[in-house]
Every structure is written in structure tokens, then in C-alpha cells.
Amino acid sequence: MDSVIIENNLNNLANKAYADYQAFIYCSKGTCVLTYSEGKHEMGSDSCAMILNSKFLKGVTTSPDLECKVIYIKESFLRQSEPRNPYIIQGMLALYTHPVMTLTEEEADLCKALFHNFALRLEDKEHKFYEDILRTSAHMLLLDLYDFHARINQSSNTVLSAASIMAKFIEMLEEKEYRSNREVAYYAEKLCVVPKYLSEVSNKVSGFSASYWINRYASQDINELLRENKMTVTEIAQMFHFTSTSYFNRYVKRNLGAYPSELRGQ
Known about the structure:
Blueprint: E1 4-7, E2 21-29, E3 32-36, E4 39-43, E5 47-51, E6 57-62, E7 67-74, H1 75-79, H2 87-94, E8 100-102, H3 105-123, H4 130-153, H5 160-174, H6 184-190, H7 195-206, H8 210-228, H9 233-239, H10 245-256, H11 260-263
Antiparallel strand pairs: 1-7, 2-5, 2-7, 3-4, 3-6, 5-8
Helix pairs in contact: 3-4, 5-7, 6-7, 8-10
């Protein structure tokens, strides 16, 4: 089943072929360092990590004695298994800055069992309800991992209405509305709040401002389009409703650290 892949190493964690997958890692021995989003995150024995967007993964270094298990699950498959508790949104956003969780002994035992059970379910293709049991296993995995995350980050006090606003904001970004609208005021109006409140909610729930997320989604999309080399710089600038190519060039330089011509086909 190509919706789920299980591996015993981190060799493919930054593989572009795995871009549509979320990665769930359990480290039982050794260490690794993930350069992800805005920082470096070290994993040791009895720790786990959730990489929700491999596009933000810049590098992986591992110790020679690393022993780990990685479950890759396609985002489209996960959406049908994702828990509906409001914490999931704030947890998901917090994972961009804190993807690694150091587990207690009891949590480590549970995590090992979860990963082992998931592998068994994946192999049991003769099961009459194979896809359903796999979705249930994914649901259980997510529930327990987010429970670990909530304990470690102790961020469950976020107001639920704020998490709901943030969820709708991210949903608009997922729909690529940033291609034509990159002003916080636009999203605030659509959410029936003032821009200052949306920025406050974003900072409270995710640790980043609303403008950060708008530019993060937009620049990542632009980066991919430039590297694909299927459209001209002018065409991409027009797609994103920039008033001029020079303005587009400055935006790319500011957010990606290089001009469009330098990112071509990399």
C-alpha cells in the first residue's frame, strides 16, 4: 500500500519523493539531529518526532549507532484518520518549532508497541478489513503522539476558539489563497476578526505571526515552482499577483535568501 511506508533508517526523510508523506519517527538508540523549520532538533534514545512537512526539513545527521523506526503516511490518507480534538491544530502548528519529544519510560514502551502494531497491521494484507484497520491504527498512533506532545509542551490552555480561528486560517493557506492575497488584513476580514487579533492568535497558538505563515507558504510554493523550471520567472510573478518582476525578485530574495535565477532547477 503506497499510502504507508515503514523504514528502519532516516535515509529518505528529506527525499523529494516522500514530499507527500508525514513522517513519524521513534529512536531507540543513538542520536540524530534534524535541521527543521527554524532550528536544529536533537533526538536521543526513547524519543520520537513528527515531521508534518518535509519541505521544511533542511538536513539530517545521524550517529553510527542510530536505531530507529520511521512510519511515512501520505497526508491524504491521514486526513481521513486525523483526530478532531481542537488541540490537534495547535499541536500541529507547535510541531513546526518543537517536532521532537523525549518520552518517559512508560511512553517509550507505548510508542514501541504502537510502531510494532502498525507494522503488523501493514503486513496483514489478508485482513478482511485491511484499509479500515490501517486507518484505525493511524488514528491511534496520532492520538497517542499528540498526547505525548500535549504533556511535554503543556499548551492545552490555548483557548479553543483561537485554535478554531487558526485552523481556518491555515485551511485558506492550504488552498493557496496566498497566491493572490498576502496581507494579514485579507485573512482577518474573511475570519471576521481584526488583523491585530489574528496576529495575536497566530503567535499564541503557533509561536509565529500570521504574516510569517503567509510568507512561509507563499515562498515554499514559489521555491518549488522555480525549481521545477516549467514556468518563466515572469509567469510565476504574475501567478502570485506581484505588480512587477523586480518586486517579485526582492520578495524571493528576502524570504528564500536567493534571487529566482539562483534557485532555477536546483
